Amino acid sequence: MNNHPTICVCGAGTMGSGIAQVFAQNGFQVTLFDVNEKMLHTAKARIEKYAPGISAEIKFTSSPVECVADVIVEAIVENAEAKVTLFNKLIAINGPETIFTTNTSSLSVTGLAEKAGVPGRFAGLHFFNPAPVMKLVEIVVTSYLPEERAAFLSNLVTRAGKIPVTCSDSPGFIVNRVARPYYLEALYLLEKNVSDVVSIDKLMEATGFRMGPFKLMDLIGNDVNYSVSCIVHESLGKPARLKPSAIQENKVKEGALGRKTGKGYYEYPVV
Ligand SMILES: NC(=O)c1ccc[n+]([C@@H]2O[C@H](COP(=O)([O-])OP(=O)(O)OC[C@H]3O[C@@H](n4cnc5c(N)ncnc54)[C@H](O)[C@@H]3O)[C@@H](O)[C@H]2O)c1
Question: Ligand 1 center to residue 203 CA distance, Å?
Fold first, then answer.
């Protein structure tokens, strides 16, 4: 592997576009791939808005055969089957040294590593939203990953200007697991008519949280947040305290996904 690894980010949505921006801003050669041309255009415009000049440094593509790099960072839809299908495609066209990483929030990294078929070259690289702003990156290691590869990823994250924290593979890893009750209790209060969206957000912000739970869910994407809740709930044996909310399920069914669709718990101008 060369001194300055090449990066291919798969998925140009909320996370993928931000991750591509982060690597490009730190001098890495980056390819950004998405099956959806419209998402690529939106990603390009968003990157250009927040980091003028950087989008010209990124190769945007809707062709999977161009996804050849030293490090693959997968940030497509939170669905194990879709992720494994993509990894299988990319493993077939990449060299034997390429490291495959997933930005999954809640799927088992070990399960994905085994299904993809290269467990010794597979890890979680969990960026937070918005990726260009949030400093922390969880590096999710499995029992298959040699220590030197975990160290390589840690070094890569540092060179991308972020703070790496290594954690083992367990449902929701660390941050999403600890944060889950923040969303779920707020939804429970709403469901029981104890308070409303705006008041809950205002109160939590007044206590020092950077963002109220509803604003945060709209930023994350209600589809993504709901799917993480379901997966964490399921994989921990369905504890009542982590039961996903019907309110959020309905938001997903209505397509009110948050900022990315212009409507969630609040309304937003569509970018
Ligand atoms: N949104 C968050 O706050 C957040 C935070 C951390 C991690 N994550 C994780 O990051 C991943 C992406 O989340 P997101 O919020 O960016 O989703 P998103 O819905 O904004 O974007 C997903 C993108 O993947 C593309 N896509 C779908 N299938 C594809 C395929 N087979 N090949 C290539 N592109 C494909 C879609 O066109 C879309 O552009 C998920 O695994 C999610 O759990 C999300």
Answer: 30
In 79-135, which ranges are continuous DSSP H helix? 80-93, 109-116
- CATH number reported for the structural domain that contains residue 101 in this entry: 3.40.50.720
Phi-psi domain of 233 (left: phi exceeds 0; alpha: psi -120 through 50; beta: other): alpha
CA distances from 150 to 38, 115, 121, 154, 201 (A): 34, 20, 10, 6, 38
Measured from the Cα of 219, ligand 1's closest atom is 3
Q: Quick one: which atom of ligand 1 is closest to the CA of 221?
A: 1
Q: Please report which confidence band the pLDDT of residue 201 belongs to, taking 50, 70 and 90 as the band edges.
A: very high
Number of domains in the chain: 2
Which residue among the candidates 74, 106, 108, 138 is catalytic per the annotation? 138
Asked whether 15 lines ligand 1 (CB < 6 A), one says yes
Rounded to the nearest whole angstrom, what is the distance from the C-alpha of residue 193 to the centroid of ligand 1? 32
CATH for 210:
1.10.1040.50
Confidence of residue 51 (pLDDT cuts 50, 70, 90): very high
Rounded to 5°, the CA angle 246-248-252 comes to 115
| Tens-place pLDDT, residues 92-140 | 999 999 999 999 998 999 999 999 999 999 999 999 999 999 999 999 9
Please confirm, yes or no, whether 195 is among the known catalytic residues.
no
- The alpha carbon of 101 and the centre of ligand 1 are apart by a number of angstroms equal to 14
pTM for this model (two decimals): 0.93
Q: Among 106, 135, 168, which residue terminates a domain? A: 168
